[in-house]
Amino acid sequence: MSIISFLVGYIVPFVLVLSLLVFVHEMGHYLVGRFSGIRILAFSVGFGPEIAGFTDSHGTRWKLSAIPLGGYVKFFGDQDASSKTDTGAIEAMTEAERAQSFAGAKLWKRAATVAAGPIANFILAIAIFAVLFAIYGRQVADPVVAEVKPDSAAAQAGILPGDLLVAIDGDKVTTFDDVRRYVSIRPGRKILVTVERGGAKQDFPMVPLSTVITDQFGNKMELGIIGIVTNQEVGHFRQETFTPVGALAEGVRQTGHIVTGTFEYIGNLIGGYMKPDQLGGPIRVAQASGQMASLGIAAVLQLAAVLSVSIGLLNLMPVPVLDGGHLMFYAIEAVRGKPLGAGAQDVAFRIGLVMVLSLMVFATWNDISALIG
Fold first, then answer.
1. Which of 1, 274, 297, 361 could be a cystine partner for 268, CB 3.0 to 4.6 Å?
2. 284-298, pLDDT tens digit by residue?
3. Could you say which of 26, 95, 240, 264 is catalytic?
4. For residues 166-187, b (16+ Cβ closer than 10 Å) or e, as one string?
5. Which residues contact 339 (CB under 8 A, 6 or more apart)?
6. Is 26 a catalytic residue?
7. What is the mean pLDDT of the chain?
8. pTM to 2 decimals?
9. Residue 337 zone, left/alpha/beta (φ > 0; ψ -120 to 50; rest)
């Protein structure tokens, strides 16, 4: 592959997708901060040296920076891009200046401003999914079994062709995709499948087998499989369409599925049901961006929606330097009636930075291992 092909096929889609997600995330911080009366010094997509930018009439510097792996909004009174308070600067401010600073804002305004970033990512994901459902609809099939694979979890449990799956662990399923989605994120974990057979309902306990699946691009994924297949004859494959309101509701549900799946994955890692090598970093995201770009704009948008949810959830982790860490500090402040001391916050930020960098290094190592393995 030539350098130009690599740049156009992988790096450009990656930068465009990530920049969109970062812009929306930071715009959430910016809009709520402005609404709360907090002065904003800079809005940056990317880190490091500025490539291009301008200063608006409010004194905010809007800029595109050299390292396209994030972004930030710098508020009046912040020491750096992590929104760490510049204690010395705050102490030197007049009362009028302090009222415009982030640190000087009321607790609920600071919390709302910080939470607005991840919330904006969730809203973007819902909007993207809603548009895709409104335009393309989705293909669905009834959860009726056409074939049971030999020696599979379903075969061992006693599932038969013709069975209609109606619930898993008490949760109603209406399409075959509902079954696939629920099972795939629970490898090695006991589930209870309820089927309708001959007009009567029966329960079948089983354990999805952890299976490595290779997609059309050669990427390997570890999923839970119970070994059932449907087809046109019994599943009645059809294209489902949505009204605008229905598409929006489905966008909310799809976003909820991703959130649930993420927490299930974390639970699988903690419980030892899945390997941590599925955790990807920027290299794998860049690879996925290029692969989706080859399938068309709809695939790219779907990837953007999934990544947007992931960014929102990641930023809500209670880790200092992330939005969730700031919210954790504000919760402590609400209980104590005063913020943590500057020294304690500084130590916490250093620990948080080490945690985030360690996670990035681990994810990047997984990316490299996947490429060479």
1. 274
2. 777 777 778 778 889
3. 26
4. ebbeeeebebbebbbbbbbbbb
5. 329, 332, 333, 345
6. yes
7. 87
8. 0.88
9. left
